[in-house]
Amino acid sequence: MRHKHTTPFEMPVIKFHVKLPIFVARQWIRHRMASVNEYSARYSILDREFYLPAPSNLAAQSKTDRQGRSDAIEAREAAQVLEILQADSQRNYDHYLWLLNENEAGERMDENRSGIARELARINLTLNAYTQWYWKIDLHNLMHFLELRADSHAQYEIRVYAEAILSVVQRWVPLSYDAFNEYRREAVTLSRTAIEIVRLLIAGKDAAQPIATLSAREWGEIRDVLLIRTDRG
Is there a contact between 186 and 151 (Cβ–Cβ < 8 Å)? Predict the structure, then answer.
């Protein structure tokens, strides 16, 4: 792990049965080095089940991160949001069944209508509806997934899954799990400029010039990890 050898970690393979909201699945599937067999809504009727965030996880859009959240919204607005999400989910599922002309048991609802194909009716469902899949992946690619998705910057909903998978990996391959935490999850990679800064600071020299070449965000990350204090902050 320390020397970035990958072959030993490509040998172990694991398969998960995952039930997840469709919008989380769209993020998850970006990790392409896995075999995926998803429950088919062309073949079967999806369950009436939806993900609704906890009020504490309803937050405004971040002003500094285009794909992140800011502070939680106030309780009154959160209640309104949840009411809308719940109503839209149930209404669209009712329309889904109407389009199918089938109930949740797969029985015809109206003998005078044919309904439309399942592969078309499903397009009306909301992204918080649940899908399921089998996800088979080797340990090397699984660790890459976890390094990104168990990170504090990952979206909360997929991070919950990643944290659950981490506990599985800890039981499955405990030595690799410890090495993963030691050399990847809890380690940092320093840029060439960052290394130069650290060397100057250790030698008691002025590092202002290389520090000035970094963005405020990059310098802040280096400073926070290494507990560096300078005039720049």
Answer: no
**Number of DSSP helices (H) and strands (E) in the chain, helices first:** 10, 5
pLDDT on residue 73: 84
Tell whether the model's pLDDT for residue 213 goes beyond 80: yes
Find the DSSP H helices in 101-155: 118-121, 139-149
CA distances from 28 to 18, 154, 215 (A): 11, 11, 30
Query: What is the fold of 7-185?
Result: Gyrase A; domain 2 (3.30.1360)
Domain-by-domain residue ranges, the chain?
7-185, 192-226
Side-chain half-sphere exposure of 178, counting CA atoms within 13 A: 2
DSSP state letter for 113: -
At residue 108, what is the residue type? R
Q: Among 91, 149, 217, 229, which one carries the catalytic annotation? A: 149
Is 232 catalytic? The answer is no
Per-residue pLDDT tens over the stretch 128-139: 999 999 999 999
pLDDT tens for 54-108 read 999 988 887 766 677 778 889 999 999 999 999 999 999 999 999 999 988 888 9
pTM value? 0.87
Identify the residue whose tokens are 């209640």. Answer: 79
CB of 137 within 8 A of CB of 143? Answer: no
Residues 46 and 125: beta-carbon distance below 8 Å:
yes
